[in-house]
Amino acid sequence: MKKNNIFWIGYSDLMTSMFFIMLVLFVVAIGYLLVKNDENRELIGELTIREKGLLQETERLQKLLNLEEQFKPLINDDSFHYLPDCKKFIVKDLMGIEIFDPNQVRIKKEYIARTIRVGEKIDSFLNELSKQNKGFSYLLVIEGNMANDYYDPKHVDRPDFYIRSYSRALAVYNLWLREGINFRKYDVEVMICGSGLNGLCRDPVEENNKRFSIQIIPKVSK
Question: What is the pTM of this model?
Answer without folding.
Answer: 0.66
